[in-house]
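Re: beginner question about structure tokens

> Can someone show what the tokenized structure looks like for a real chain? I only ever see the sequence side.

Sure, here's an example I had lying around. Input first:
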Amino acid sequence: MKTLACSDLGAPECHFVAKAETAEEVVKIMTEHAMAMHKDKVDEMAKTMTPDAISAMMMEKVKDEA
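And the corresponding structure tokens:
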């Protein structure tokens, strides 16, 4: 199982953790969460990063569940 926490992406106040079998699924779930709950932060990131760069940054932070 792969995981990615919102706190790993700079939102320590959010306790959401995306979990899925693959890193790609985790990034998809986290993207949906971020767009729904943190649109202002996503919009701010989009000013300096491409969507591919944002996805790549998230992929680097995906962890194997302990």
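Each token stands for a local structural state, so reading them left to right follows the chain. The chain has one domain: 2-64.
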